[in-house]
Structure formats: structure tokens, C-alpha cells
Write a structure and sequence with these properties.
InterPro entries: Glyco_trans_31. GO terms for molecular function: hexosyltransferase activity. This is Hexosyltransferase. By secondary structure, the chain is α/β, with parallel strands linked by helices. Helix content is 41%, strand content 13%. 34% of the residues are buried.
């Protein structure tokens, strides 16, 4: 019986180099080889890119750690050699001519929008809960990575404020985007945002603004925009504040005196409250950014204005003063309340029961120490540290007109360093 027929003839072994070469050059084999090579090349490129991203991330972190001093210090910018340029308006904020000009030019959105005297302020603090407002909305500017500072304030500072009179929120922006959307940094940012949202859900005292967190990129205007939108509407709106305050997260506000400062003010007038003590004379009339407040009509007017970026960025406290200069002095006069030297850096003030705010509490232990110091001063004066026992504002204003000795020394030091140019630094 013959063997069954074979479907394919037997293959001869490839014995010579030319035979092997002809085999590799067959179309089917060449295609497979090319595909295998491309797959291998792509895999290698992905591995190289991931390694480069990790190396870049670690090197940038090392660079920041080695060059950026984040330790609190009492040294002013003048000591770094920047003071003279700052005084002349030549600091990093104002190198661009467009930005410098923007502090003087008018803004169409502010001029054409609904003016403060047309907005009004009907905010009851008693009666129907659905229409009841608060005396002050306090926004404490924080950053996403400052969880420990927020926890410190939650434990030490925020319990001072009665919630029926003051709404307190930490104001944050988004963490910066990584240079590469697919990288270890991008994964870290996503995880960080989840932690932020978890903290927001846990405490309910945070506002996350839709912008990269940078005080020089218009964060203050975004804050006022959020407040104006959150409590917008005709008639009375639940939770609407009579006054809106912006404060730094290294400022301790003396709660009884803050309540006393606002409780008898008419919020339908254009109240601008804060301190000019120690401000720069370069930008005209404004209150320092450590803590300042405005009445609801002003905040609604500013927050509702769709201003160009050039009119919202850089030097946020001076920028607020620039916005207010748009108002018609006849129909919308400004009621400025300057608390003077009862607000300022804690190491420059004569602290007493008249003090309204202590600034420059950079270290956590300084926050605790200065708060304890305030409580002791009030206890020594036999005055309860409560919202019913604040010092009359006229007494704080009167004391604020006197420049403390330590502030005088600091002013002279800055003059000696060349920071005071043509009266730039106000004593």
C-alpha cells in the first residue's frame, strides 16, 4: 500500500547564506519582522519616556528643596537687595508695561455694570431662617498643600467666631498642572485632588476656585466672583453677608473687635475697611492684604464684572484699591475705615485690647503663642473674649493713628537699606 499523498512537498534545510537571505526577504516574513521591530521600538520609547519623567520630577523637587527657603523669617524683601526696585515699581510684578499701565487705566466692565448704589444691601440677621444672612463672610486664603495650617486654624482660631454672625471658608485654587499629562506627576496631582475633595466633604469649610492657585493670577477677583455668584439673586438670599473679608492664613483676627467693627455699620453704603499702616505709597490709596473687607454692594459689583486678565492680576491688595477708584464719588462715595496700627505684623504692634489683627504668624507655634497672648491680654483687662464685648471701633481707630516704636524702627531700617524711595514706604 502506497503512502498517502503529502499536502506540501518536503522543505529542504536552508544551508547557504543566500538561501537564508532569500527566505528573510519573502514579503510575508518581512512584514512580520517589521511589525515585531516596531512593537519593540515603541515599548523601548515608552520605558525611556517614563524614566525621563521620573528623573525630571525628582530633579525638580531636589532643585526646589535646595534653592527655595520656605522657613519663616522676619527679614523683609529689602534685605535681599530687591527693596529699591520694589519701591520704584520695578519688581517682578511690574516688569511688563501692560501690567504697570493697568493700575491706572479704567475698566469698561466695572464702569458699564450695575453700580453699587443700584445693588443695595437688604440682609437681616434675625427672623425667617430662609432669608437670614450673616454679618461677615470671612475668606481665609489658603493653598492646597497647607492642610496642617488649616487644621491649626480649625483648632485654635475658628472656634472664636460665632457661626450665626460669621461664615468662615478657606479659599483655595487648583494645584498646578504637570508639564506632561501622562506622567507620575499627573498621577500625584489626581491623588492630591482626591485628598482635597475628601477634606472639603469632611469639614465643609473650603472653597475650591476654578483657577491655578496663585495670588498674582487674579485669585482675589475669583474669590469675589465666587461670593457674588453664590449669594446672587433678587430680594433676600439665605446666607448673604453684609460684609465680605479677605484675610491671609498668617493673620489672626481679634474676633470681638471684628464683630464690633461691623455690627453697627450700614452695609448699603460702600464700606472699605482695613489698614493703610505700612503700605507702599506707589499704588495710591488701598488697604493692606493681611485683612480687608468691603460691603456687599462693592463685592457684588466687583465680582459681577467680567474684567480682562490684565485688570485682575498682580499685587492683589493694591488691585482692589484700583477697582474702587472707578466709582463715581457723587453717586457712590467710598466710606473708608482705616484701623491703622491696630492691624499689622505682630512684632511691630503695641498689642492691647484695641488690637484688631496680628499678621506675619508664619510659624505654627507663633499662631498658638500670639492667640494665647491675646487671650491673656483680655483676661488681664477683665474683659470676656466674646462677640458681645468688643472694643468700640473709635478706640481702636484712635490708637491706630499712633505709630508703634517697633514700626518706626522698621521704617528707618528700610530707609537705611534704600527701600524708601520718594516716600514709598508709609510709616
Amino acid at each position: 500500500m502506497s503512502s498517502p499523498a503529502q499536502a506540501y512537498p518536503p522543505q529542504r534545510p536552508l544551508t547557504t547564506f543566500s538561501q537564508r537571505l532569500r527566505y528573510l526577504l519573502r514579503p510575508s516574513v518581512r512584514l512580520k519582522t517589521t511589525l515585531y521591530s516596531l512593537t519593540l521600538a515603541i515599548a523601548l520609547l515608552v520605558l525611556v519616556a517614563l524614566n525621563a519623567a521620573r528623573a525630571s520630577s525628582s530633579s525638580s523637587t531636589t532643585s526646589v528643596d535646595s534653592t527655595l527657603n520656605t522657613s519663616p523669617t522676619q527679614i523683609s524683601p529689602a534685605d535681599s537687595g530687591e527693596g529699591h526696585d520694589v519701591a520704584q515699581g520695578k519688581d517682578a510684578h511690574l516688569l511688563e508695561e501692560e501690567i504697570q499701565r493697568s493700575f491706572e487705566e479704567p475698566d469698561f466692565a466695572l464702569l458699564s455694570g450695575k453700580q453699587p448704589h443700584e445693588i443695595g444691601c437688604d440682609v437681616p440677621l434675625h427672623g425667617d431662617e430662609s432669608q437670614r444672612g450673616v454679618l461677615v463672610f470671612l475668606g481665609i486664603f489658603s493653598a492646597a498643600d497647607k492642610r496642617s495650617r488649616r487644621d491649626l486654624y480649625r483648632r485654635v482660631i475658628l472656634p472664636d467666631f460665632p457661626p450665626h454672625l460669621v461664615t468662615v471658608k478657606f479659599i483655595l485654587g487648583l494645584p498646578p498642572y504637570p508639564e506632561k499629562p501622562i506622567s507620575a506627576d499627573a498621577i500625584s496631582r489626581s491623588q492630591f485632588l482626591r485628598q482635597i475633595h475628601a477634606e472639603m466633604d469632611e469639614f465643609g469649610d473650603m472653597v475650591l476656585l476654578p483657577m491655578i492657585d496663585n495670588i498674582d493670577l487674579g485669585k482675589t477677583h475669583e474669590y469675589f466672583k465666587w461670593v457674588a455668584n453664590e449669594y446672587a439673586g433678587p430680594g433676600r438670599v439665605k446666607g448673604r453677608p453684609r460684609f465680605v473679608m479677605k484675610a491671609d492664613d498668617d493673620t489672626i483676627l481679634v474676633m470681638p473687635n471684628v464683630i464690633s467693627a461691623f455690627k453697627d455699620l450700614d452695609c448699603s453704603t460702600n464700606v472699605y475697611w482695613g489698614t493703610s499702616a505700612g503700605r507702599s505709597g506707589y499704588f495710591g490709596d488701598y488697604f493692606r492684604g493681611l485683612a480687608y473687607a468691603m460691603s456687599w454692594p462693592l463685592v457684588s459689583w466687583i465680582g459681577s464684572a467680567d474684567m480682562p486678565l490684565a485688570h485682575t492680576i498682580k499685587i492683589e491688595d493694591a488691585r482692589t484699591g484700583q477697582w474702587l477708584r472707578h466709582l463715581d464719588p457723587i453717586t457712590d462715595p467710598i466710606h473708608r475705615i482705616d484701623m491703622g496700627w491696630t492691624m499689622g505684623d505682630w512684632n511691630q504692634l503695641d498689642v492691647g485690647v484695641e488690637t484688631v489683627a496680628l499678621h506675619w504668624c508664619k510659624l505654627d507655634e507663633w499662631v498658638q503663642d500670639q492667640h494665647d497672648r491675646l487671650l491673656q491680654i483680655w483676661a488681664d483687662a477683665d474683659r470676656p473674649y466674646s462677640h458681645e464685648h468688643g472694643v468700640a471701633p473709635r478706640l481702636s481707630i484712635q490708637k491706630g493713628r499712633m505709630t508703634p516704636e517697633e514700626a518706626e524702627k522698621e521704617h528707618q531700617r528700610q530707609k537705611d537699606l534704600g527701600w524708601d524711595v520718594q516716600g514709598n514706604v508709609h510709616p
